[in-house]
UniProtKB/TrEMBL annotation, chain A:
Keywords: Cell membrane, Copper, Membrane, Metal-binding, Signal, Transmembrane, Transmembrane helix. Residues 33-124 form the CopC domain. The chain crosses the membrane at residues 151-171, 180-201, 221-245, 252-272, 278-301, 322-340, 352-373, 393-417. It is a multi-pass membrane protein. This is Copper transport protein. Pfam families: CopC, CopD. Signal peptide: none annotated. Its main location: membrane. The keyword Transmembrane applies. InterPro entries: CopC/D, CopC_dom, Cu-R_CopD_dom, Cu-Rt/internalin_Ig-like, Ig_E-set.
Automatic annotation (TrEMBL), chain B:
It comes from Sinorhizobium kostiense. Keywords: Signal. InterPro entries: YcnI-copper_dom (IPR012533), YcnI-like_sf (IPR038507). Residues 1-23 form the signal peptide. The keyword Coiled coil does not apply. This is Uncharacterized protein YcnI. Pfam families: DUF1775. Residues 22-169 form the YncI copper-binding domain.
Amino acid sequence: MPLVLSQRLVRLVGLAALALIGLLAQIAVAWAHASLISTDPRDGAVVAAAPSTYSLTFSEPVSPLSLKLVRPDGASTPLDRFEVKDRTVEIAAPADLAQGTHVLSWRVTSADGHPVGGSVVFSIGAATAVPLSTGEQIDWVVRAGVLSSKLALYLGLFVGIGGAFASRWLLGGVRTGRRAVAAALGVGLLGIFLSLGFQGLDALDERLTRINEFAVWSTAMATSLGRTAAIAIMGFTLAAAALLARGWTSRISSLAALLCVGAALSLSGHVATAEPQWLMRTAVFLHAIAIAYWVGALVPLGLALKRGDPAAAAALRRFSATIPYVVLVLVAAGVVLAVVQVREPGALVGTAYGNVLIVKLLLVAGLFLLAAFNRWHLTVPALAGGATATYRLIRSIAAETVIVLLILTVAACWRFTPPPRTLAAMAARPATEHIHTDRAMALIEVLPGRAGPVDISINILTGEYAALDAKEVTLVLSKPDSGIEPFRRAAVRDDETNWRIDQAALPLPGTWHVRVEILVSDFEKVRLDGEIGIEP
Amino acid sequence: MLKKLMTATAMIAVSATAAFAHASLETTEAPVGSAYKAVIRVPHGCEGKPTIAVRVQIPEGVIAAKPMPKPGWTVEKVKGPYEKSYDYHGTPTTEGVKEIVWKGGNLADDEYDEFVFRAFLTDSLPVGKLLHVPVVQECPDGAAERWIEIPAEGQSGDDLEYPAPAIRLLEKKSDH
């Protein structure tokens, strides 16, 4: 009996406790959190030297749950050494801090038992600007394929088509060098097919084993290289026809092929995206035709001289009479291209694109020296019938051809180096996020869209796209996957609908959680939640 | 069981102190169709600064609001039209106080005070739901604490940093 009684009592007390908990759940609406009053370093501060301690002062006594420091490289260090003095948490700072933006991410609990968190963002020296990197894995097989197929294409265009043109217009249609030119055309044709295949692999970021897949080729055709391929194939066909035909038909055909060289190259490559397009495309067109004229003449001319072809002397005369004008066009067009793509002299040294250009210019300078020597020292004696001079001229033309091949190889490397112009554009590309709800919508733009110091602009409208006269706009940023608790940045009004936050720091790349808090009136606040991707 | 009881007791103790951190209403339940005495408890200033004004928005459906004067503070009653006409003890009422402001005082961050008004909860208010009463504390230099956040569907006031004080609306008393 006493046992039963005690069991009943236990049940009764249990019920009472449950009822109490239920009652408490009602009251819980009024539960509260400690709020952060001040910090050292201040949130958003740029300090000259790494502080030796950090402090967080709250509105009421707290006990820390988690304190950590997220470094500029994203590594997170737990801050274990801290002391709670009344409402202030004093934290010993790690000694080995680098320059850049750090985040002191905190989570504390106060008397109410409700954990709250936040972040203090501060920079040592200056806000971190992460160097630009593509960060992609390079497939060297595909890359070598892209490079060699591109070189083969150049050979076909310049040596093949240019050679066909030279043999028809300079050498008067002699058969000498026809086989070499035809071979170059074949190499070019192979090159354009391989170029398409590797372009497709590169565009899809696939391995060589997938080259037989239709998707790879259709992707390549859809890029600007597709148009280049179509025109190049047309040029190769016209040049081959010119080699087979005779008289004026063959001349017209080889001239048309030469124009195809200019058209093919001006339709793709970095230049296809540069402004002003009319200027850039014209420059490439002229640059390519001039190269084809010069380079194309070397092989047939050298071979004709070597074999003592009677047409050689006349051809050499025509070539040396025309080449100064061609070189003028070549150089002028080249200068225009370099100026637009490189933008400023510093980029020559500072970027891969600029480095490639320097190497190319050195080779071109060597080529010009050799060519000048040929023209002013060897051509006249050779024309006069000097055997030694002719022999030396042949040797020199062969050397010129080798240098030209090197230049073409170097130029093919540009395929992998974005010009400073596009690097600058990449750096300036904003990250955006559009949040739309019934109450309001916000377009958030982070510029540049990369980790480091950023300017943020927020465009605010009502849900029906009307102007929203907000009293205050605040952005709350957090990055839970890196352990960065939310921190707030108040926006200042730009005009009726635009707000901005200057010099905020987003220390890490990745997905950031953004919350826009819009104070519509004294008593009404709208919250918009979204996510924004920040590039490295 | 003893353990449970102890937990419950501990929770009472915790909630008693916790309620001081948010601006809140003393009475959190009230029947519709009756008068309600609102006691707004202001627990602290704006991040260390003293409170120099307290503003309360009278929600739609709450009429005939009358602030209780407070020594050291001037009371301002912002009047305006209601969205519709309400029956107030047989009198159709279309306008009245929509905002009450106590200002000119100085309530230090480490002090506590209460601000009182009385109003009539019309029976047009939804029984069983929460009625939110937004409160704004103003401090020097443009600082403010805005207890104006209203939980969205599926959210509770607990999820918010600055929840508006709320009253649970009860069934109208029939013996009236």
